[in-house]
Amino acid sequence: MSHLKAMASRALQLALVLWAVVTILFLMFRLMPGNPMAAYIDPTFTVEQQEALMAQFGLDKPLWEQYLIYLGNLLQGELGQSFRYREPVAERLMTLLPNTLILTFSSLIVAYTFGILAGAYLAWRRGSVVENTAIPLVLTTRAMPEFWLGMVLLAVFSFWLGWFPAGGTRPAGASYDSLWALYTSREFLSYLALPALTLAIYSQGLPLLLMRSNMLDVMKEDFVTMARIKGLSNWSVVVRHAARNALLPVMTSFAIAVGYQLQGNVVVESVFSWPGLGRELVNAVSASDYPLAQGAFLMIAVVVILMNLIADLLYSLLDPRISHA
Amino acid sequence: MTETLLSVRDLKVSYQVGKGSIDAVDGASFDVPRGSIVGLVGESGCGKTTVARALTRVIADNASITGGQILFDGQDIAALPEREMNALRWRDIAFIPQSAMNSLDPVYTVEYQLNEVLRRRGGLGRRQARARCEELFEMVGIEAGRLGDYPHQFSGGMRQRVAIALALALNPKLVIADEPVTALDVIVQRQILDQLRELQSMLGISVILVTHDISVVAYVCDRTVVMYAGRIAEAGPMDAVLMEPSHPYTMGLRNAFPDLKGAASGVLTPIEGAPPNLAFPPPGCRFAPRCPFAVETCTTQQPALGMVAPDHRVSCHRADEAAKLRQEAARTETWLADA
C-alpha cells in the first residue's frame, strides 16, 4: 500500500517538473529577441500578408491564450510545425530520437562497463605504478574537450588510416528496408564507432573515478573485513561484497549521465554530422526555427526526467535499505 | 587432546606509521583452556583488539605480526602459510564483531550471509544449509521467518544475535568476540551475554571476550587477562584476578567501576593520567608513570610475568606485596595523592 502511495507521489512530482519545463520553454522562446516569424516570412511579403500569417500561427493572440493553446496541443502530442521544414515537429524529432538514443546508450554502456571494471581494479591496486599512471591519464581524458577529441579521432582513424567513415549514419545513397535493418547493419556500426568512442572516452572518467573512490571507502567497511575473517575467497570479498556495494552510486550516476550525455551529444553530433536531436537543436536555434527548437528541448527534458525516475527505481532495486524503508 | 586450546606466546604486533613503527602488542602471553570464556580486558588502545584480530591473522594493512607464537590446538598459526590459515578461518576460529550493523553486508539478506558461510566455507548443500540456518536462528532465539530479512530490518540486539548465529554456523572451536555488547544498552547487554554463556557451555566451545568493561568480564568470564599498553598486566581465574588483584592497574580498574556484585560501595575512583604513547614507551614497567606504588626499579626495569598463585600470573615488581598494596589501593587518597 505504501508502495503504491510512493509511486503516486513520484508520478505527481514528475508531472509537476514536466509542467515547469514546458512553461519555461514557452516563456523562453517568447522572451527571446527577434521576431519568430523572421525566418518564416519572406521579406517581400506585405504587411497584410505578414499579419495574416501571424494570425494563422496564433501569434496575434495574447500571451496567456497562446500558453493555453500550447498546453492543449502538447497534451495531444502536437508540437507544431517546423518553420524551416514545413513539416510537423513531432514527426521530424521522432526520426532523429533513435539516432541520439543509440549513440548515447552505446557510448555510455561502453564507458560504464570499462569505468566500473577499471575503477575497481585501480582501487584494488592502490598505490601501485599502474594506479599512479592511470589516474592522471583518466583525468586527462576527462579534461579533453569532446569536439577536439572527436576531431583528433576523425583525423587519425578516418582521414589518415581510413578505417572508419567520417560522418553520417550510412553510405551515400544506401537505403534500408527498415530502421531495424539500418541499425543492425555492419555499415551503421562503422559509422557509429567514432562518435560513440569519442563520447565513451569522454564519459568513462566519471564512473571510473567514482567506482574507485567508492571501492576504497567500502574496502574499509567492517563487513569487508568480516568477509576476510570468514575466510571467503578474494573474489568473494572484492566482488560480492566490496564491488557490489561500491556499485550503488555508480549505477545511479549512469541514469543521470544519460541526461547529461544528451547535452554533450550536441557537440559530438555536430562534429560527426550525426543526424540526432543535438545537431537538430543547434540548427533549429541558429535558423530561428522556434517550434523545432522548442520541441527538441522538450524531448531532451523528457528523457532527462525519465532517466532520473529510472535512477530512483534502480537504486531501490539495488539497495534493499531504500525499498524496504 | 590437551587442556589448552589456544596458547599465545610472547606475541608482538607492530603498526608501520610513517617511517617508524609502533609495537601495539609487545610480548603478550596467555592461555585459553578448552570450554572456557576468557575475558581480555583493558582500556582503549591497550592492544586488546589487535590481539583479537591477530588471532585471525586478518589485520590492518600496515600491521604485522613481528614475533611470538599463536599455538592453536598445538599448531603455530602465526607461522602458517596463508592458504592453510584461511582453511582454519571460521571453521575453527570465528569472530563476533563489535558493531553487527556495519559488519553485516547491507545489500544481502541475513540468510544469504549465513548461506555464504555454510555453503562456501562449510560445503553444505542447499537443503542442509536451509535447515542449519533455521537451527541457528532457533539457537539465538530469532524466528526462522526472519531469515529473509535484511540487516537494517533488525534491532541492534537482534543483529548481535545474528552475528552470534553467524559465528556458530560452522561449529568453531574458538569464538573471538570483540566488544560484542558495547554498542547495546545494559538490558540487552545482559540478554546477549546470557545467551553467549548458554551457547558456549552447551556447545563446549572456547570464547575470547574482548572488552573494556570489567563488569562484563565479571558477569560471564571464567578467566581474565588484563592488558595495559600492549602488555599483559595480570592473568588468571576471573575470581582471583578481580577479587584479589595483584597488579596495581587491576586494583585501579576495580575502583573505577561500580561494584560488581551490585552493592553500592560509594565513590568511584579513576586512575589519573593516560596510557603512554606506544611510539615512545617508558622504560621499565609501562604502568609506572600512573602507578601510586611505583618504586625506582619500576621505572628502569621491565617486570616479568611471574606466578603469584597457581595459574595466576602478574607482571609487577611488587607482586609479593600485593596483599598490602590492595589495602592501600582501596583508599581513594592513594590514587588522588599521586596525580
TrEMBL record, chain A:
Keywords annotated in UniProt: Cell membrane, Membrane, Transmembrane, Transmembrane helix, Transport
Q: Does the keyword Heme apply?
A: no
Question: Where found?
Answer: Cell membrane
Q: How does it sit in the membrane?
A: Multi-pass membrane protein
Annotated organism of origin? Nitratireductor rhodophyticola
Transmembrane segments annotated in the record for this chain = 12-32, 101-124, 145-168, 188-210, 246-263, 296-318
Family assignment from sequence similarity: Belongs to the binding-protein-dependent transport system permease family.
SUPFAM superfamilies to which the protein is assigned, alphabetical: MetI-like
Q: Where is the ABC transmembrane type-1 domain?
A: 97-315
Pfam families named in the record: BPD_transp_1, BPD_transp_1_N
Q: Which InterPro entries match?
A: BPD_transp_1_N, MetI-like, MetI-like_sf
Identification of the protein by name: ABC transporter permease
Task: Show the PANTHER family listed in the entry.
Answer: ABC TRANSPORTER PERMEASE PROTEIN, DIPEPTIDE TRANSPORT SYSTEM PERMEASE PROTEIN DPPB-RELATED
Q: Which Gene3D superfamilies match?
A: MetI-like
